[in-house]
Amino acid sequence: MPSQPMVVMRHDAATLRAMAQAMLERVGLSSDRAADVADILVEGDLMGHDTHGLQLLPTYLAEIESGSMAVEGDFDVLADRAAVATWDGKRLPGPWLTLRAMDSAMARARDYGTGTVTIRRAHHIGCLAAYLERAAQAGFVILLYSSAPAAQSVAPFGGTHPLFSPSPMAAGFPTPQGPVLIDVSTSITTVGMTTRLYKQGKRLPHPWLIDEHGNASNDPAVLFAPHAGSILPLGGLDAGHKGYALSLMVEALTAGLSGHGRDDPGKNWGNTVFLQILDPSAFAGEEAFAEQMGWIARACTDNPPRPGVDRVRLPGQGALERKARQLRDGVALNPAILSQLQPWLEKFGMTVPAALT
Length: 357
Hints:
By secondary structure, the protein is of the alpha+beta class. The protein has one domain (about 10-190, about 230-345): Ribosomal Protein S8, Chain: A, domain 1 (2-Layer Sandwich). It has 10 helices and 12 strands. The protein has helices at about 15-25, 30-45, 55-65, 95-110, 130-135, 190-200, 235-260, 285-300, 315-330, 335-345; strands at about 10, 75-80, 85-90, 115-120, 140-145, 170-175, 180-185, 210, 215, 230, 270-280, 330-335. A hairpin with a 3-residue loop joins strand 2 and strand 3. Helix 1 (about 15-25) crosses helix 2 (about 30-45) and helix 2 (about 30-45) crosses helix 4. The two termini are about 30 Å apart. The mean pLDDT is about 95.
């Protein structure tokens, strides 16, 4: 018999945020920190990045219960100059730390034209794209990069042993046509996606992996014991030298500038972060920025599409359109996410929010 189509339930975004915040408070986060974490996770789902949305919540809850994610105290300021700061995040919640770093960097940019904050020992910061719209809507350019010192899943180009994390790079800026939101990994796919497909017994659409012997594969099983394979750098077997170079650049900006990286002992799951804000008014001016970026944005979206493509989009345009639809019609959650949340909901005497009809 043919398989039954997967039923996707839709849920009100505000209700999902409230659920996530309540669960985080149950394990010890203060309401303001829990709200920040819940907001970033649901923002990821709203934009369609569902491997980095509420799918992360059960793991975050377990990290708090085990003591691996800190819930109390504040970050330490290790260095602070006019436009630059470095913090020790002390394994506090990554979304809360990153939002505080954004606040600090934007304040510095208003005074000095630019502001940069690097963070060592942050816990996992979630989906980078979830932070970008806030800065772009305020008229700023934002650069946000992260690495995961304890993670080794991506081999350097030409090698066979995993060394890097997927180490995403994100950027956002305003245009008259709406914000551009860029979020790309320096690897050709992500740990979240390969893990999901591995658990589902599925394969990737292309050979984006290599096994421990360097053979190309589309089977996520090569990443898990007894194998010791790797995700390929961005560009894959043909042009992976580009992703490899970007991985090294991210290491310099995160681990290098914050002084904490892959050779440090006692590493746990989490991120090292580079966040920079640029104020166009301190350069050629807001009008000049809008004119230049407006022209190039129009030139992209007016470009004749190739066969099979309905239109040329700006990076992030599809995500923002998806967010608008899901705010109106409800967030479509992958059924696997709800099943992973169910044990925690039962533990806290809570139920899955009712689906929208």
